[in-house]
Amino acid sequence: MAAHVPQRATLGRLKPGQGPLKTDAPFYTEEELDALEAVDPAAAARIAREQLLLQRQFASMPASDAALPTADAVLAVLDEARRILARDGGDLEFVSLEGRCLTIRLKGSCAGCPRAPLDLKHVVEALVRQRYPQIETVRNVY
User: Considering the domain boundaries, does residue 14 fall inside one?
Assistant: First the structure.
């Protein structure tokens, strides 16, 4: 006779734009995962992996009461990004910091470059969010 496995909501990865991460996700206990593994090993492995990813996301989330960085603090990080972009003739300009949204303007060789969205995401946004995870979006204006 197969072990009884309680029904739980499907755990899924949060995709950008889907809204806030749920912190009340129904996690399986180790005993429930062991029982599920006896019945369906692939499902147990998938759920265990998704739970681990969610737990890592929860751990990396800033506290809701964490203070937003000042414009001066963000400028220091943008100077570091500016040095990286300058290697290829690019530059950036700080436009505004409104709540959790940082607005910049890519200049120099970055202006109009087809790789500008990649530089914005993988250079500027990565550096800013690494230091200040409270900032949710970094956008470029022309």
Answer: yes
Q: Tens digit of pLDDT for each residue in 95-124?
A: 999 988 999 999 998 888 898 899 999 999
The one-character DSSP state at 123 is I
Per DSSP, the residues of 56-121 read HHHHHSPPTTPPPPPHHHHHHHHHHHHHHHHTTTEEEEEEEEETTEEEEEEEETTTT-TTHHHHII
Please tell me whether residues 132 and 80 are part of one structural domain.
yes
Shared domain check, 52 and 19: yes
Same domain membership, residue 77 and residue 54: no
CA distance 65 to 63: 5
